[in-house]
């Protein structure tokens, strides 16, 4: 025993052993370095987006005292409860009242820096609280893009000087802009919002889910439980696996060639966008579904058949419920990928300027990634922070979907 060990522990063996240990140590260091580098890049990305995007949830606003009680605008409560309340306030002279109040409070030069659509913000406040018409209120209304840039120190010297003077006097401030989530696209960075893009994304994802999930699950069930094992089945399996790796813009070309040829009047509609993204998501659902179905132990099938269940009952009463957590996890990950896609939607026309939220699945719409792409191409510096804020919303939604996938997997996962 001792002589054999002594012969094994020869100097040459010790050298080789030392060399293997050194390689293993280097491999661990390389792996740890890769993880640290990935985490550092992720932290840098999130920190950069957060720092730049925080300003996107704010906007420069001017404090305007408005004496509504003395002005006595000729508009009553019934008019404010109707659809055309905004037009009624405009006809009653609200824009002129806001302009006069701004001139009295800020002077002629500074009043010119009030946003031209500031009266619409005042109108929304009045519609939400009609009691304002009987009071002397102080309203924070959006400033012009030039004054907003001056507040950031990036505008012309005149705007920077005026912004500093108004800021020091407490009449100009960067305030939280809750309307960023409820407004739609606009040409003025002070007035833009992401609600139209968010609603377009929701509608597109609904179409994608309704098409991709049932077809993908049924295809996975057929291929795993019923399809014969022959050459044609192998060709189909290889084709599905290859489709999952096809660049997304190819699916956009397919949607452009097929769906827009059949429905030429539905260009940039969520229905066409959802159908195109469903083509891209379906292979992911089929692959994850087959893996989840394959993971169900054969004893479950044998036990169900032994007590008299038919093959269809075995699949839909036993196999599918047990495989559903894995299928849902793959589906949500595929949907999250579809939510962040831009290339296929570019080709079917979902890059149009959409100033109103879509009314339904056939209305003209855009989606959040496309809105980010459009804003990133704007020259106005005010769109930079808005773009970062929209990216934060998109990342938050993607993290929420991935968190939901992890929760579903952990909650419903079965172990045998």
Structural commentary:
- The chain is 68% helix and 5% strand.
- It has 19 helices and 3 strands.
- It has a 3-stranded antiparallel β-sheet with strand order 2-1-3.
- The two termini are 44 Å apart.
Shape: extended
Query: Radius of gyration over alpha carbons?
Result: 30 Å
Number of strands: 3
Strand residue percentage: 5-15%
Order of helices and strands: HHEHHHHHHEHHEHHHHHHHHH
Mean pLDDT: 87
Per DSSP, the total helix count is 19
Give the N-to-C terminal Cα separation: 44 Å
Largest sheet: 3 strands, antiparallel
Low-pLDDT residue spans: none
- Helix/strand-derived category reads mainly alpha
- Main β-sheet, spatial strand arrangement: 2-1-3
- Helical proportion, percent range: 55-70%
